[in-house]
Design a protein that fits this description.
Helices cover 45% and strands 16% of the residues. The chain is α/β, with parallel strands linked by helices.
Length: 126
């Protein structure tokens, strides 16, 4: 049985939920394949916080670029290793956000993605 089971997604269908928003969360991210498969199986259009979900078959993702965020870690760690006190370092926030649209998934769900949205996407998976 999956971590949320098909019952949660079946409930979304029964309640006629128009879509699902999956927030950035380590627990949910660790179950990316399960979430994407359940959303697909139950035909629930879903938007995710990380591009990896759209790359795995999710409909849309919009959120901070994990790659860019991880690139900030090296210089930060270097400053700490050179003696800087972590409390004295400025808080870093994401500066790059990515919109990824999976057209294969949109087609499977019978959805048409507006051209204006496609034009704004950082990546379109066809």
């Amino acid at each position: 049985m999956c971590f949320v089971g098909g019952r949660a997604f079946a409930s979304l269908v029964q309640l006629q939920a128009g879509a699902l928003l999956v927030l950035a969360d380590p627990f949910l991210s660790s179950r990316r394949e399960q979430l994407v498969a359940l959303a697909s199986r139950h035909a629930v259009p879903s938007i995710y916080a990380w591009r990896e979900f759209a790359a795995s078959g999710g409909l849309i993702s919009y959120g901070a670029s994990l790659t860019s965020a991880y690139r900030l870690l090296g210089p930060y760690a270097a400053k700490i290793l050179k003696g800087a006190k972590p409390a004295d370092l400025p808080v870093q926030q994401p500066t790059k956000f990515e919109l990824v649209i999976n057209l294969k998934t949109a087609e499977a769900l019978g959805l048409t993605v507006p051209q204006t949205l496609l034009a704004r996407a950082d990546e379109v998976i066809e």
